[in-house]
Amino acid sequence: GRHGLFPHGIDVLTAADFQSVGPRKNAYLVVAPYVASFPEYTRPLLDHLVELKLEHWDCAIREVAAKAISKLTDKIPEYVATEVLPKLVKKTESIDLNIRHGAILGIGEAIYALSQAELPDGRKGDTLIDEELWSRVRGLVGELRSRQLLRGLGG
What we know:
Elements: H1 9-15, H2 18-21, H3 24-36, H4 39-51, H5 59-73, H6 77-91, H7 97-116, H8 131-138, H9 140-146
Helix pairs in contact: 3-4, 3-5, 4-5, 4-6, 5-7, 6-7
């Protein structure tokens, strides 16, 4: 950080010290959003959450990762609406229960965060989601039931 090798190195290292990243919730819900406030780190953090943490074998990690996505969404709502959400919807087709579960959690948190985010033109962030994607999200429960991937809900 002191040598200038990483953008905002001192700020990031100060925020992400051992004491602050030790508690899992703090690392995901406080430190990660702070680090993501630097544009160089926003997309990589979101991509890491989507590609790795939402698929984690530990349910608690998937849940806190989805909440972290919610906290990062207002920083780049266009990216979440046009890149992240389509990836998550595609992941609901996986045969792996952990991947499907994480994707569904991520979709819910991302859509909620987009509905709360205000764009520079005054619209809400969820207006960035195209109609085809909305249709796929609305049809998820029926699709999962038809493939017998949603159990315990009377399907």
